[in-house]
Amino acid sequence: MTELDLAIRGATVVTASESVRADIGIRGGRIVALADTLEGAPREIDARGLLALPGGIDSHVHIAQPSGPGIVMADDFASATAAAAAGGNTLVMPFALQARGTSLRAAVESYRALAEGRCHVDVAMHMIVSDASPNVLGQELPSLVKDGYTSFKVFMTYDDLVLSDRDLLQVFDVARREGALVMVHCEGYDAIRFLTERLEREGRTAPYYHAVSRPEIVEREAAHRAISHAELVDVPIMIVHVSGREAMEQVRWAQSRGLKVHAETCPQYITLTAEDLRDAGLEMSGAKYVCSPPPRDRDSHAAIWEGLTQGVFQTFSSDHCPFRYDSPEGKLTPRGRTSFRWVPNGIPGIETRLPILFSEGVSKGRISLQRFVELSSTNHARIYGLARKGSIAVGYDADIALWDPNRRETIRQEILHHGADYTPWEGFEVVGWPVSTILRGEVIAEAGRVIGAPGQGRILDRQPR
Ligand code: URP
Ligand code: ZN
Ligand code: ZN
Ligand code: ZN
Q1: Could you tell me which of 227, 284, 344, 358 has the fewest CB atoms within 10 Å of its CB?
Q2: pLDDT tens column, 284-310
Q3: 6-54+397-450: CATH architecture
Q4: Pocket of ligand 1, candidates 317, 319, 341, 342: which has the most ligand atoms within 8 Å of its Cβ, to mutate?
Q5: Cα(53) to centroid of ligand 1, in Å?
Q6: Closest-lying ligand 1 atom to the alpha carbon of residue 321
Q7: How far is the CA of 292 from the centre of ligand 2 (A)?
């Protein structure tokens, strides 16, 4: 038998295709054996009664991104990845944001420098392209994709990020030529502006009106436009953070026509509603739930489950985008107090994504363990080109979440590790919780504690497609 460094013994090993009782043999950070019994390893973890899941991969998180004048994101790479580890994740994919008028290459270098030596889990970077200048389209983007930055996000809204349709088409065209995947934030800029200005004229400026200013029609229209542009250019796209039936049906329609349209959804769209944006006593507490697209209603939750069970969605990500609530640099900026328009968009969720999907999905009988693993890990690795990640199989990195499927837990801010000062899921009860997280054969989190200094996580270089 091959020499092992570590054996994980007695767990039910879950992959996208099956669940089997097996011991997992690990050497040099890789899985080298799966067998009924693996004895004699110098270190053993007793995992009887637990599930061994592929470590969670969260392919949509925002870390240390500037978000407007005077606004600071609540997480740096150390705190965000500590929270990720505690939540059963071994790999996250944040964005290197290009500010308009600046170099995309420089953005990638500066985010890498922020992450270097500070991460508890592995990191692979996407980019955000906000400036479709001739230099970006002709030089920087092609060369970065050749360097392995094979996915990037574009926005159809936000003053400082929105691309025109012509810009979108040009960016799609570069992606097609270079073999990249474009992630698209689908919400129509002009319609949102029109609605926002009308609401402000009427004095409807509380956080709740954020949801009113970005109804599902606005998301559906943009999704349809993105799909049409992708079809024109013949490029694969990923429609991110789909919030409800309208956009989901656009994706389903595109997929039924054979278009290469992938889709992602997030915990907020199966649990929260626009009603959460209404102030409940606390000053502007609705701001805690301001994210885009906004959470909808119960019927939307059902529509998202339809998409999750029918295979319309390939990935379930957090869209972690943390701001402190009780802070003038977070949700309660002086400007944010005057109108929802200025409340920074985004909610924290990197640590709670897996328990919410497991509990609402597997424990409540809506999805199988196999579908859970696909949505939380395997598909992220496959779609974003992360070799040796996202499964428990010989030759793969030993990235594993040991999971107690029966553990009841109540989500509370005080048990979380993120830099935000609240969780949108305060008091939310789940069944199923991570017991420990193993990154390339090393335990990085156990029983709610993050173990080891930051720096165990690597910044991964992806292969060009
Ligand atoms: O409100 C959100 N989701 N903020 C994060 C940025 C984005 O659009 O994903
Ligand atoms: Zn977005
Ligand atoms: Zn696919
Ligand atoms: Zn996002």
Answers
A1: 284
A2: 899 999 999 999 999 999 999 999 999
A3: Roll (2.30)
A4: 319
A5: 28
A6: 5
A7: 7
- ipTM associated with this complex: 0.94
pLDDT at 279: 80
φ/ψ (deg, to 5) at 88 = 90, 15
State how far the Cα of 320 lies from the Cα of 28, in Å rounded to an integer.
Answer: 31
- Using the mean position of ligand 3's atoms as its centre, give its distance from the Cα of residue 75 in Å: 31
Q: Which atom of ligand 1 is nearest to the CA of 158?
A: 8
Question: What is the share, in percent, of the chain residues with pLDDT greater than 70?
Answer: 99
Residue nearest to atom 6 of ligand 1 (CA): 346
Sign of CA dihedral 333, 113, 128, 387: negative
Q: Which residues pair with 123 in a beta bridge?
A: 92, 459
Intervals of CATH 3.20.20.140 along the chain: 56-370
Q: What's the CA-to-centroid distance between 319 and ligand 1, angstroms? A: 7
How many Å lie between the centroid of ligand 3 and the Cα of residue 122? 23
Q: Which residue has the tokens 């165990």?
A: 456
For the 56-370 domain, the top CATH level (class) is: alpha beta
Closest CA to 324 of 315, 336, 314, 306: 336
Residues 217-239 have pLDDT tens digits of 999 999 999 999 999 999 999 99
Number of alpha carbons in the 13 Å side-chain half-sphere of residue 105 = 12
Q: For residues 433 and 403, is the Cβ–Cβ distance under 8 A?
A: yes
Specify the domain boundaries for CATH 2.30.40.10 within the chain. Answer: 6-54+397-450
Question: Does residue 198 register a pLDDT over 80?
Answer: yes
Give the number of other CB atoms < 10 A from CB of residue 449. 11
- The answer to whether 333 and 71 are in contact (CB under 8 A) is yes
Q: Is the pLDDT of residue 1 over 60?
A: no
